[in-house]
Structures are given as C-alpha cells and as structure tokens.
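new request in #modeling-help
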Amino acid sequence: GAVVSQHPSRVICKSGTSVKIECRSLDFQATTMFWYRQFPKQSLMLMATSNEGSKATYEQGVEKDKFLINHASLTLSTLTVTSAHPEDSSFYICSAQGTSFSYEQYFGPGTRLTVT
Amino acid sequence: DAKTTQPNSMESNEEEPVHLPCNHSTISGTDYIHWYRQLPSQGPEYVIHGLTSNVNNRMASLAIAEDRKSSTLILHRATLRDAAVYYCIFLQGAQKLVFGQGTRLTINP
C-alpha cells in the first residue's frame, strides 16, 4: 500500500518555541492531506484539511494562526505549532489522500510532541 | 458530522473469528463505509471499505446489510497483532474522515 512518513517521530520543545512537523507521501501524489491530533485515550480529532497549492481549511475551534499548515507540493505538507504551550502536547498524525474515488486515506506514523 | 455507533470494547481468542459491528443509520446511498484500525502509538491503518456489496481483502471481510444501516468487519482468524482500536467511518459526501471512539479489540492468547 501507499506509504506516508512523518518527521520527526518524537520531539520535545520548550514552552514558547515553534515546532515544524513534516508529512510526506513517498510513493504517490497526494492532492489532499489532513492533520489530526490525538490526546491519550481519545480518538483522532481532525484539525485541518490541506489541498496542494491552496490555503488549508481548519476545523471549528482550531486556531489557524497557531497551527500553520503549508502544502507546497503534491508530496509534502508541514504543520508548524507556533508558540507551543504544554497543552499542545499531543500525538499529531497526518494522512494523505490519493485520487481514488472512494477517498481512501493513508496515515503517517504520527509525531509525539511534548512541550515542557 | 457522520455518526457511527460501535461497542466500546470486544474480546476474542487467538485464531478465532471476530465480528466487529457498526451501526450507521444516517448513511446515504453514495456514502462509502470505511474501516481503519489503530495500533498503540501508531497512525491508523486502512483495513477495508465498501459501498453496497460485501468485500474481501487479505486483511478482512466487510459484510454490509442490505439496507446499509449497519456493517460488520470480520477478521477470519484473529492473531495477537490484530489487537487494536477499530474505527468504522462513513463519508457524507465530503473527503474528511470523522473518527468516533471505535472498538478496542483485545485478543487473548
């Protein structure tokens, strides 16, 4: 199946700093990428939908100025958590969608962010 | 948001079949039913999807009710590696997947 990678897999940063997470589709072109956040023992929560070459669409309650998303190519999307705080500590997961009519998505392995 | 109902947890024994139910009474005629699973500390993994007919792949089978208001994911011979949270999702004409709480499947050796 299609492969999606994320980098880094784990990051620890100090409060107030910014962190960038990369999501890459390795063997297919992804016209749409999605970013999710997952807190311990909870389900995935969609943060935003990103289409290549256009601005991301954020879900209600997600601050677009805090979670900057860039989808500059068909194989790369980045999520930057700006001025991170301890409450931003979470598991961030991206997914990429190819051109299948059935909207199948392929997920990355996730990035564990810890803000101290 | 698209709403599905699944049991919070299920338990089965290794090498036995597992039937994971899902209710989706608000599904419309063009919505695909998707199943994903998530192992601990990993991203979700695609399992199977279908529209109307039952579907089989190397991982599982998907049985869809005739009225499409429910479906069942079937693992024919469960292994310890199948222990995960299984999510049943359908898309209401949109691209985005809305995850519910899923079913936590425990496999006993």
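bot summary: The radius of gyration of chain B is 13 Å.
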